[in-house]
Amino acid sequence: MSTSSFANTGTLFGIYAGLGLVIFGIAGNIINIYLLYPTRSIPSSYLLFIASFFNIITLGEALLQRVLSLGFSVDGSSTIMAWCKSRFFVSFTVTLISLTCVCLASVDRFFVTCRSAVWRNRSKLITAKIALLISMVVITSINIPILIYTTITETTSSTGVITRKCSVINPDFVIYQNWVLRPILPGILPGIILGITGWLTYRNVASATGHQLRDTFQRGLTSMVLLQIIVIVIPLAPFAIMSIYQPLTASVPKSAYRVAQETLVSNITNILLYISYASNFYVYLISAPSYRQKFLQLFKCCYHRNHQNNRIGTRTKEQLEINRLSIEKQILPRISN
């Protein structure tokens, strides 16, 4: 493959895969919000409910902007300063908060499935809310430097072409971004937390009796979180590897062919990362029978409501036609007289 083929492949993948994730992901998260709202008094359900809001922001702001930039060369961050600063700040903040919600939900599932009543009693809604609030404050605080050090820079080529790009200007923050903000916070750290808590929860479930997990919805929540962990960790691994590989090899001389290959891999891993934020509804639908029942009830309710509206509309038309004929019958005899 030539370098242009790599570029075209990356563009097409970004358009079709990215737009697919945006559309189906936002739709799925909206359904999640509706279905999880009645059960938000349960800590895990509350955390997944909140995560759905941040998933929508992540897909609509971070992924959609990447798709527009990669596939259609539409990048407002290279011309509008406010967009440049807010884009990366919002992207990093909402993605980390969403991952934090899932991590906290996995910890809660570990508590719920423990044999010890002391550990099970740690699963409380107020605890989940406090932990989430503290996490949101910390995440927002550590991302504030993005607003300070991100700006629009200009580079002039040998032919005199000026290229504007939204980038970080502080060298120390570049190091922090390359080694902490990208590979560790959204990749390695949540992967480790989810891996450990997922394994501990699975071990608890495997050794638990039917009495301990007798609640159908609680069992469903555990299945939802465990499968969600797998779906999150799988795309996180290549993203974290690529995030470490790029700064490690930044000073290595590379041919145009190798640069094109690495750019393609980077674009693919960045797009696939958003599977974690787009797939939760479909994961829950597969893993939890109680969630499927709620979704089917919602679907049937919408179907019957639409069917009823159509019947009402048909009846209204029929009634109007009957009224028209009745009026004509009353008028025609008068005309004939």
Automatic annotation (TrEMBL):
The chain crosses the membrane at residues 12-35, 47-68, 88-107, 128-149, 184-202, 223-245, 265-285. SMART domains: 7TM_GPCR_Srsx. InterPro entries: GPCR_Rhodpsn, GPCR_Rhodpsn_7TM. Keywords: G-protein coupled receptor, Membrane, Receptor, Transducer, Transmembrane, Transmembrane helix. It is a multi-pass membrane protein. The keyword Transmembrane applies. One of its GO terms (cellular component) is plasma membrane. The keyword Transmembrane applies. One of its GO terms (molecular function) is G protein-coupled receptor activity. Residues 28-284 form the G-protein coupled receptors family 1 profile domain. It is found in: Membrane. This is G-protein coupled receptors family 1 profile domain-containing protein. It comes from Adineta steineri.
